[in-house]
Prior knowledge:
Layout: H1 2-13, E1 18-22, E2 28-29, E3 34-35, H2 42-46, H3 54-60, E4 67-77, E5 80-87, E6 99-103, H4 104-110, E7 111-116
Parallel strand pairs: 3-6
Antiparallel strand pairs: 1-4, 1-7, 2-3, 4-5, 5-6
Amino acid sequence: xxxxxxxxxxxxxxxxxxxxxxxxxxxxxxxxxxxxxxxxxxxxxxxxxxxxxxxxxxxxxxxxxxxxxxxxxxxxxxxxxxxxxxxxxxxxxxxxxxxxxxxxxxxxxxxxxxxxxxxxxxxxxxxxxxxxxxxxxxxx
Length: 140
């Protein structure tokens, strides 16, 4: 995920908004427009602690890319991303007039891929933003 995030930061700094895919139903609130791992305390509410890694969740189908949104800005401190501004397609009744804030840790756990505008379902971006191809997805 670190290479994907670095590419996304460089693209945003170049003024390019980015489609990104994620599992939006996890640790997110459409009412408040917040996506953060500390949003829901499963241990307090249900006496369980989610323990699967991202890879395990993807392999078992517990997590999957369920929605695409647009990354429009990133807050960077000491060269590292902290949080991201996201524009959602659910209209102005979701989030703050359709805008969400996503923590960097949420991006690590539930972000799946980024797509540059004008490309077809690819998880890689221009060589000017990264030094190598990340992965390729074929049409679904």
